[in-house]
Amino acid sequence: MPRRTKKAIFRSLIMDNNFDVIVIGSGPGGYVCAIRSAQLGLKTACIESRKTLGGTCLNIGCIPSKSLLNSSKIYNKAINEFNSMGIEVNNIKLNLSKMMDNKSKAVTTLTKGIEFLFKKNKIIHLKGKGSIIDKNTVKVIDEDGESTNYKTKNIVIATGSLPVSLKGLKIDEKNIVSSTGALSFEKVPKELIVIGGGYIGLELSSVWKRLGSKVTVIEYLDHITPGMDEDVSSEFLKILKKQGINFKLGFKVTEIKSGKDNVVVGFTNNKTEVKEKIKCDKVLIAVGRKPNIGEDIKELSIKLDSQEKIEVNEKYETSIQGIYAIGDVIDKGPMLAHKAEDEGIAVAEIISGQAGHVNYGVMPAVIYTSPEVAQVGKTEEQVKKANIKYKVGKFPFLANSRAKVNNETEGFVKIIADEKTDKVLGVSIISSLAGTMIAELAIAMEFGASSEDIARTVHAHPTHTEAVKEAALAVDKRPIHF
After folding, report:
1. Annotated catalytic residue: which of 125, 338, 357, 461?
2. Spans of the chain, pLDDT less than 50
3. Active-site annotation holds for 461
4. Where on the phi/psi map is residue 455: left (φ > 0), alpha (ψ -120 to 50), or beta?
5. How many whole angstroms separate alpha carbon 325 and alpha carbon 131?
6. Which fold does the domain 6-59+101-162+290-358 belong to in CATH?
7. Residues 205, 208, 211, 216, Cα dihedral to 10°
């Protein structure tokens, strides 16, 4: 009797029974959905076309970018701040190769961690490109080109998103790059042009500015961070300019010409129509992301919206019963990893007969620059547009003792509360710890807290979070330290 290959044995094991759930994509939404499904007793498989689990976020997005943000921040501090703090370090040098190795090790450790969680929860990892044949059948083509069909009661589409380019422009990931290429430069660009003043563009601008690049951000709008509170956007712009990042706001990019060793970027002022050109080493295109939707979705006639996102109902079910979608591919909430995670849990619970739910009104968003910028709930502009009468409390970190001794005095906490009920409607923070601090406010808002509730809550001294208490006090014009 001929010996069976490992692949044949694997197939025989998983083909004995149908799956309850097959998740397509192992990003934050997909792998979390698979784990929760397995926890609920559902026989679960997860398909991933990459060799490693974790999707864009873990492999070429959130995690590697945060590694470089942290390393570059420490390097920048060593050069510009250590001496004044009484830490004398000589001959500080950048070893970009080691920094990239450190980033890669972190990614490898975390992807291995997801593999462990799959094994722990008895989730079948199907390696290859997945496509939907019908509502109960998924096809997987592996790296050898072999095709296998798998049966399932439920399908969850969690295929994430892809970078958007400018019309007619090809991203080569060499001179003209997306965020993927900008996370893997072999040397620091002398001059870097970043097209797009959103989260990704500003985070990577910060990385390469700290490491020695001359960075210019070109943004079509007259402000950065579209969707953020205007108060925050304005202050954040001042801070980034102070750090040495150049900005061309209100400009349209008209041409990008790539040569052997450089790129020429042409852009025009939207109001004056004055044209400018800059020659640089690299261009980062950071103008947004689009849903990663395969032809199988269109062939099945799954309903899409005007933005080519999958339409889903309140149970995350598509126009075909038994096929669900979460994360960047759907028309709910912002394109954020933690949003996808919560949707993954919700879908798993809905499939198992529970009441899964995601509160999009309390969805924190963070820009991981230095200082960080974080926001949850409504902006002041959104509250005005909704004709809600409101109060605002602000407190600067310049008046916070912990921020002062840590030399982290830039930024503020801003709390918006309903004028009549005092219920907190939205919070924005600029601070070195904004991404962590915003969780307190998200929890408060999830429980329907008033600014008075926050003001009456004891905050440890000395901490950055005392600024949250002070901002809450400031809603009724009674801050203590400012």
Report:
1. 461
2. 1-2, 9
3. yes
4. alpha
5. 13
6. FAD/NAD(P)-binding domain (3.50.50)
7. -60
